[in-house]
Amino acid sequence: MRGCFLPGLLVGLTLAVGSTGAVAQTRTAATGRAHRAAHPSRTAANSVPGSMVLPARWRTTPVAPAAGVPWIGLTEYDKLVKGPTPATVIDLRRATTFRHGHLPNARSLVASQAVPTISGLTGAVVLIDSDPSGAGALTLVNQVRAGATFGGGPSQLVVLKGGIAPWVAAGRPLERMPSHFMPEVERLTVEALRTKLLAGWRPLIYDTRGETAYASGHAEGALRLDESLVTSGAVPKKPLVLYCTCGDDESAVHAYEALVAAGYTDVHVLRGGLDALTDAGYPTVGIPH
């Protein structure tokens, strides 16, 4: 968990918030000025540094689907997975994204293993992808078909249109990998974030990882959250979205608890963190696409 906002820091932050009092208040203005000076471009572009943007691909105009994708909707999906021989559901998204929320009974499969694994399956196979155009899934479908011998491979290979988004929109529950050590903090999904941004919500976005991790790549507009910002009260009392790349959103959860202990009430942990944002097409800085 290199670069994470470490669990032990929560204790120090909580104690600091409760003990610094007036001292912290005197540091707020100076820390706030340093905070803005470190991110001049964001200060100029937004009234408050760290404001989230609404990506062009997240607007209401749908992404054009790739030609030839064997799409199915939720109705067809239900028939396949509830039939006498239930379909195998393969989730092609990142493993870290998968663990934070996936369709019931889905299997996570990395790209390098996808073709040989799927080629060895029989019966119907449903693919779940993060690309709304379906281009990546179509490439995989064609590779499996091209390598199939007579009578081998899946009897049906299809792609769920929209990935997990229509499933979530229909109010259906997702499964997630169990955690035995993290506190239960309600997460904000990327799908819910997109809906809120389209409705005009403009939270501030903070990266809770260390300096090196942040410098290697982060969400566009995101500011790095460190101890001085919390203890000094320099973080604006506005809606906040926190993310990291730690397992089970660990650093973001601990930062959430520190902010709540400091009196912040509108704080949200993004499920899946930076990986989920990147997969959904949110603009980033320093991350190749």
| Sheet having the most strands | 5 strands, parallel
Oligomer: single chain
Percent range for β-strand residues: 5-15%
Number of helices: 13
Low-confidence stretches: 5-46
Structural class per helix/strand content? alpha/beta
Task: Walk me through the topology.
Layout lengths: L6 H14 L1 H16 L2 H6 L25 E2 L1 H8 L6 E4 L3 H5 L7 E2 L2 H9 L4 E5 L6 H13 L8 E5 L4 H5 L17 E2 L1 H9 L5 E4 L3 H6 L1 E2 L3 E2 L2 H6 L7 E4 L6 H12 L5 E4 L2 H7 L4 E2 L4
Helix pairs in contact: 1-12, 6-7
Describe the structure.
- The protein has 289 residues and is an alpha/beta fold.
- It is built from 13 helices and 12 strands.
- The strands form 3 sheets. A 5-stranded parallel beta sheet has the order 1-5-4-2-3.
- Helix 1 packs parallel to helix 12 and helix 6 packs across helix 7.
- The protein is elongated and about 65 Å long.
